Amino acid sequence: MFDPIQRKSLLIISIALVAVWHTYRLPLLGLVAVVLVLHAYRQLQSKSKTPASASVPPSPRALSPSPDAKFSATESEPSTWATKEIKKPVPSVNGNPPTVGPKRVQGKKPAKTIGKRRESEEKIQPITHIQPIIFFASLTTTTERYANVLLEDLRAAAQDQADPETRASGLLPPQIHDISYIDFDDFFLSVPKPPSTSPGTRYVYCILVPTYNIDTVLNTFLGHLDETHNDFRIDTAPLSQLAGYSVFGFGDKEEWPTEEEGFCTQAKDIDRWMAKLTGRKRVYPLGLGDVKSDAASALKEWTKGLQDIFSDILKTGGLGEGVEGSGDAVESDEEDFDENEPKFQKDKAQTMVDLEDIKVNSNSAAPVPVDFTTVGKSVVSEPTAKEMVPKTSPTYAALTKQGYTIVGSHSGVKICRWTKSALRGRGSCYKFSFYGIRSHLCMEATPSLSCSNKCIFCWRHGTNPVGTTWRWKVDSPEMIFNGVKEGHYKKIKLMRAVPGVRAERFAEAMRIRHCALSLVGEPIFYPHINRFLDMLHAEHISSFLVCNAQHPDQLEALKRVTQLYVSIDASDRESPRKIDRPLHRDFWERFQRCLDILREKRHVQRTVFRLTLVKGFNVDDAVIGYANLVEKALPCFVEIKGVTYCGTSTSAGAGLTMQNVPFYEEITSFVVALNAELERRGLGYGIAAEHAHSCCVLLASDRFHVNGKWHTRIDYERFFELLEREEADGTSFTPEDYMRETEEWALWGRGGFDPNDERVYRKGRNKGKTIGAAPEPTASPAS
Ligand SMILES: Cc1cc2nc3c(=O)[nH]c(=O)nc-3n(C[C@H](O)[C@H](O)[C@H](O)COP(=O)(O)O)c2cc1C
Ligand code: SF4
């Protein structure tokens, strides 16, 4: 067959192959083994998926006779997209809806990227129309009745917008569905597609439900939501294409007085599941109505809030950034949106820059130093003056990172943790117990981020500018006033998506009632503070102004405020050096002059000493010293509060640790001793109220003890009436003219927690120890 030459060639090739084999056989065998193992592994894996899918919990509707799922998880085509007629509920034996079937998920497993794809689709397709869809469940027709009221209201709102000019966008007439008669998969497994003629239409689910502690369709519905979220084959947020959702619950407070006892629990659960399924698209907070009292009015308010949000969405094309809520059905109520949590602390060391430390470019015109403590009333901003907090400065970055909204160049606003707490029905700050300030109606702001002290316990220290003179550009009070309000409302609006926010409180919060001028810095540092106060009062916003007793001229010139505070952190000349670390060399003289001014003002303004006790610094043997100060200024009130530990390097550098935070028992012992000393001197004070949660106690002058009762609260409307009368005809008034009786629960010995609020204990805290326990080691001083 082969000639000798060919045979020889073949032999050489064979020998060469054998040689190659011997050289490379080990790596080759290894490669083959790896390929075989990988193949076997894949086979095994695909087999093991079958039992896993079988382990998905059976649908609660598994016994239902109608198994026709209309949509697969990847394709959603509504079968009945026209408004459905409401069918009368047909009572069922076990409450299960007769028409709904087991969830059938067809096709491939939708990858989690579907959500992302949808998001990108959303971006491409701007929202032009909002289509509200009302879902309700009702066994004894109450909720159905209210659902029809909502239907009419939304229909009227859509009608109002039916202007030919605005037809290109707007609110569409609502649709309504009885939860008992829909196929859940049509609406709660995926979102109906917008009509092809109007691809910018997006749906908002408005869900109205009662609560039943017996088995009803609501259990089935909740089961579906749970199952949809937990079905591994379905995107965890398959309803994220909605423009949003909101839930309103009806319950009976006579039988289930509190949420802990079961009031509206199923509405709360549905709200949480919907947060998960929509990817946290709660457009408006959960509304709750008691069918025996306020259901109609609460629903009206909720409806109005919804309509406002619809307008916002149509204007802005979406929900905005929102405040993240976990939406976790179980855990979300545990969330703490405390921006003041020490989570920022670790970055502080890097961002600690005092404005004084920032070098001014030597080529630029240096700001003209104006000694603000001697400056005349009409301050004109130097054209060459620098901005106090320029947008490019590290101070700006640090403050905004901490949640401040910087307004103009030297003012700021921030919503405090108590405002958030009150929005969630969890209690207000101590100023509610003592003076009736409801925290969700309170704006915390300052027209001057600069301060003339460097207090060791100021948790903002290092991020706020300091200085003894105003040498910056001055913004107009109008600009500051409008800016802080806008900043505040924007922050409040972001709270609407936070789990647990109450619809009624959210609605109330959209009208500021109080302004705590105490955020950071020194408000009377601002040259136009009086004009700023006029603006607050003109809108019936009460003013609580805190100053640090370092600016006597400004204090003297200050017009009426609702309540005037002076921070007192030391009882003798030496302590302030260690605690407040004032920048003024004549700080003690300034302080003494401020006390004299306060004494003069005490029959015109409500004057308050705020004592912050720092164990080891200003508590021991300080009672006599503080009593001397009280005797000098005779303030209307003395607030005594334990320092809150902030853990900054500044405080640590000053030797402040958790050991310096006094226990509540230590505060109360101090208060009792101070009170005894004031009594011994015949000054006429008594212990009026307490807020144990904030480690705060209130001593009050007997002027506010009338007919055997403390009157530490404020009648705000009366204050504004008197103020307007004074402005009109010069009739002066005194602090006693607008006092109100203190609530029983706030009195000394009662703890000071409003029984109408929900008490939330942090994990691991002993409920029984709250009164008399150490304060939370957070960096959030109630201002
Ligand atoms: C058997 C029964 C159980 C109820 N359970 C609760 C409950 O746990 N929590 C609650 O807030 N209200 C509860 N309610 C009150 C109803 O939620 C309330 O009456 C509601 O308006 C009923 O709405 P509907 O007429 O639309 O069915 C219950 C009522 C009944 C009759
Ligand atoms: S802590 Fe201060 S800012 Fe916050 S609610 Fe109370 S008074 Fe207002």
TrEMBL record:
Required cofactor names: [4Fe-4S] cluster
Keywords, ordered alphabetically: 4Fe-4S, Iron, Iron-sulfur, Lyase, Metal-binding, S-adenosyl-L-methionine, tRNA processing
GO MF term list: 4 iron, 4 sulfur cluster binding; FMN binding; metal ion binding; tRNA-4-demethylwyosine synthase activity
Compositional bias (Polar residues): 73-82
Entry-linked SUPFAM superfamilies: Flavoproteins, Radical SAM enzymes
Biased composition, class Basic residues, residue ranges: 105-115
Enzyme class, first EC level, given as a word: lyase
UniProt entry tagged with the keyword NADP: no
Residue ranges with Acidic residues bias: 330-339
Pfam families hit by this protein: Flavodoxin_1 (PF00258), Radical_SAM (PF04055), Wyosine_form (PF08608)
Family per record: Belongs to the TYW1 family.
Name of this protein: tRNA 4-demethylwyosine synthase (AdoMet-dependent)
Organism: Penicillium chermesinum
